[in-house]
TrEMBL record:
It comes from Streptantibioticus parmotrematis. The lineage of its organism: Bacteria, Bacillati, Actinomycetota, Actinomycetes, Kitasatosporales. This is GTPase Der. Pfam families: KH_dom-like, MMR_HSR1. CDD domains: EngA1, EngA2. Associates with the 50S ribosomal subunit. GTP 1 binds at residues 30-37, 77-81, 139-142. Transmembrane segments: none annotated. Keywords: GTP-binding, Nucleotide-binding, Repeat, Ribosome biogenesis. HAMAP family: GTPase_Der. Belongs to the TRAFAC class TrmE-Era-EngA-EngB-Septin-like GTPase superfamily. EngA (Der) GTPase family. Residues 24-187, 199-372 form the EngA-type G domain. GTPase that plays an essential role in the late steps of ribosome biogenesis. GTP 2 binds at residues 205-212, 252-256, 317-320.
């Protein structure tokens, strides 16, 4: 996006960010109305988005970035659960289950003015069994008189209840300190990466596209004995699989194998899982059922992978079920509805028959290579110079904005910052992105281009 002003600090931030892997993940769980969304808003320091009074509306966005005392982490907001469909107990239990599997630490929010309910006690049991660090937030303590209510929550056996008013901010500093203590410096998954361990793959796609079938197929006989791999932190929800001569970590596979039997309302749950898997992964293999018409859910999942900045491979599964007619329409769908990922390598596979399974690894490797591409500043500016000379920005209001200089601020995915003498129109920015792709490849990766305007 184009931004006003020209701020060197911000650019330095972009550059510093470049080397970062995935951030530790914090989940916020608790009954409806205890103030989870209010707390998340307070922590991320924004009022937008989270509190949304549209029951039953599936929110796409469930992960937010937060920072405190110079450390960054992700917050997963589990508050959007469709309570009316699932019933309160089921929804809270499902949140907790999700949090347990996908987060590095959990904030459990209780309404101190109400005290611990049976549902709260049930969640505590789940949380305790999981062994993930839990910080107890006694919320709605708006003044000193509420402290006594908060103290009664020691009875939950989760340690100190942090008395907080999410609404007014009271006590949130101490809570955040406790959260930082509970969160690992970096999630376990980055460890393998740091020592050149297995690349992390997320298998995503809407229910029934064939994720578990594909996982079973690729896992085959070759499941790796984990302890043999030095320095690999085993997360029970991940699986190490040997494919194409190297070991890959398929992340968050528990959610794929152990199907969650929630008839309705499962959409939101699936969306949380997708977000969590993307958070941990470097590359997303996005499965699409080629025998069915591309759905809104498919495109939403693709968009999630792009927004998460992951390398992407599109796998058209169930290819064995295609007939001539369907194939004809599929080609058109790909052209029209998949423009957002035209750059992603595509493989046409069948998890049932094993068709073209051998093409999966080369596609993943291509996408990862694009994701890690770095264009030297000199080359980038030579390219930009020629481009701008041949295709100047249209004159607007008597002025012609010029690109002065560009730099690649980061990789994984490639991120560019362009410095310009004026606002660059969206169409021109898209043109530049297109030309960057033509020139430098970037197959299988989203790229981000931001513009800083120097007045
Ligand atoms: P969620 O369903 O757990 O996400 O809860 P919300 O964040 O939507 O909050 C439910 C209600 O509690 C809203 O009316 C909030 O304004 C209110 N609330 C949240 N935190 C506090 C607080 O610290 N003090 C008071 N008095 N009200 C709060
Ligand atoms: P998931 O919900 O994405 O994990 O999907 P599953 O792996 O459970 O598959 C859903 C259904 O599609 C099952 O009945 C599978 O047998 C079937 N299926 C999966 N892959 C293929 C395929 O390549 N071809 C055909 N014909 N059926 C498939």
């Amino acid at each position: 996006a184009a931004e006003e002003g020209f701020d060197l600090d911000e650019v330095a931030g972009d550059l510093a960010e470049a080397g970062h892997g995935p951030l530790p993940v914090l989940a916020v769980v608790g009954r409806p109305n205890v103030g989870k969304s209010t707390l998340v808003n307070r922590i991320i320091g924004r009022r937008e988005a989270v509190v949304e009074d549209r029951p039953g509306v599936t929110r796409d966005r469930v992960t937010y970035e937060a920072h405190w005392n110079g450390r960054r982490f992700k917050i997963v907001d589990t508050g959007g659960w469709e309570q009316d469909v699932l019933g309160i107990d089921a929804s809270v239990a499902a949140q907790a289950e999700f949090a347990i599997e996908a987060a590095d630490a959990v904030v459990f929010v209780v309404d101190a003015t109400v005290g611990a309910t049976d549902t709260d006690e049930a969640v505590v049991k789940l949380l305790r069994r999981a062994g993930k660090p839990v910080v107890l937030c006694a919320n709605k303590v708006d003044g000193p008189s509420g402290e006594a209510d908060a103290a009664t929550l020691w009875s939950l056996g989760l340690g100190e209840p942090y008395a907080v008013s999410s609404l007014h901010g009271r006590g949130t500093g101490d809570l955040l300190d406790a959260i930082l203590e509970a969160l690992p410096e970096a999630p376990a998954q980055t460890f393998g990466d740091a020592i050149g361990g297995p690349r992390r793959v997320a298998l995503i796609g809407r229910p029934n596209v064939g994720k578990s079938s594909l996982l079973n197929k690729v896992a085959g006989e070759e499941r790796v004995v984990v302890n043999e791999l030095a320095g690999t932190t085993r997360d029970p929800v991940d699986e190490l699989i040997r494919l194409g001569g190297r070991t890959w970590k398929f992340v968050d596979t528990a959610g794929i194998r152990r199907r969650v039997h929630l008839a309705e309302g499962a959409d939101y749950y699936a969306s949380l899982r997708t977000a969590a898997a993307l958070e941990k992964a470097e590359v997303a293999v996005i499965l699409i059922d080629s025998s069915e018409t591309l759905s809104v859910q498919d495109t939403r999942i693709i968009q999630m992978a792009i927004d998460a900045g992951r390398a992407c491979v599109i796998a058209y599964n169930k290819w064995d079920r295609l007939d001539e007619e369907r194939r004809y329409y599929l080609e058109r769908e790909i052209e029209q509805d998949l423009v957002q990922v035209q750059w992603a390598p595509r493989v046409n596979v069948s998890a049932s028959t094993g068709r073209h399974m051998e093409k999966l690894v080369p596609a993943i490797e291509t996408a990862l290579a694009g994701w890690e591409t770095r264009v030297p500043t000199g080359r980038l500016n030579a390219f930009l110079g020629e481009l701008v000379a041949a295709h100047p920005h249209p004159i607007r209001g008597g002025k012609q904005p010029r690109i002065l200089f560009g730099t690649q601020a980061g990789t994984k995915p490639p991120r560019f910052v362009l410095f310009a003498s004026g606002f660059l129109e969206a169409g021109y920015r898209r043109f530049i992105e297109r030309r960057l792709r033509e020139e430098f490849g970037f197959e299988g990766t989203p790229i981000q281009v931001s513009v800083r305007v120097r007045e």
